[in-house]
Design a protein that fits this description.
By secondary structure, this protein is an alpha/beta fold. Helices cover 43% and strands 13% of the residues.
Length: 207
């Protein structure tokens, strides 16, 4: 791809760094911005810059937040006795879209995957255990991707929580094994949450 402007080429190269964006798509996006009012483009770039510099992570659940607590943790209408454990922030968004869960979340920041160099110490597992130890939590729902790494993570955390009087469940296998939550349709994900099963049964039959 040959460019007549180094500024245009630089902009295209930056957009092409985004996941799922190739050079042709990046070029379309840049040319679109060139057609927009300069004020709109400035607002766009300022919004992205402000998002990167000012965004925080909730000190309670590690979800994305504008303040110390995210909008979910600070909402007194949410049920604080149930925590849904997810791998990443995209999974929070996917579950919230179903409008079938009214508890709180805990974002692990990944799943245990030795082959990828991800161990328990690199996740927010200890913080989750401390939340459960307060005694205010009555149920933990694991909503992790149904694959070997997800199963391993559930098993590991389940062992860490075995001496704490809390109900531990996982979403039903409405999600195909090897699938990812963020790509599941809302109805399937909602049913998986509603029909969750006890982790003891899940581990004995799945591992």
């Amino acid at each position: 791809m040959i460019f007549s402007s180094s500024l245009l080429e630089s902009a295209v190269n930056e957009f092409a760094k985004l996941p799922g964006i190739g050079k042709k798509t990046a070029l379309r996006l840049v040319l679109h911005l060139l057609k927009q009012d300069e004020g709109d483009v400035s607002h766009f770039s300022h919004t992205i810059s402000r998002m990167r510099s000012e965004i925080k992570f909730c000190r309670n659940c590690y979800n994305i937040a504008d303040a110390d607590l995210c909008n979910i943790c600070s909402n007194r209408m949410r049920g604080s006795e149930i925590i849904c454990v997810v791998e990443n922030i995209r999974d929070v968004i996917a579950i919230e879209s179903t409008q079938q869960f009214n508890g709180l979340y805990h974002v692990l920041g990944g799943i245990i995957s030795p082959l990828d160099g991800v161990g328990p110490d690199q996740l927010t597992i200890d913080a989750l255990v401390e939340r459960v130890k307060t005694g205010a939590v009555k149920e933990i729902i694991f909503a992790l991707n149904p694959n070997i790494q997800g199963d391993t993570t559930i098993y590991y955390i389940g062992k860490k929580l075995k001496d704490i009087p809390v109900k531990i469940t996982t979403i039903a296998r409405g999600i195909a094994f090897g699938g990812e939550l963020e790509y599941a349709d809302e109805m399937t994900l909602a049913r998986s949450i509603s029909n969750r099963i006890a982790v003891e049964h899940y581990i004995s039959s799945g591992l």
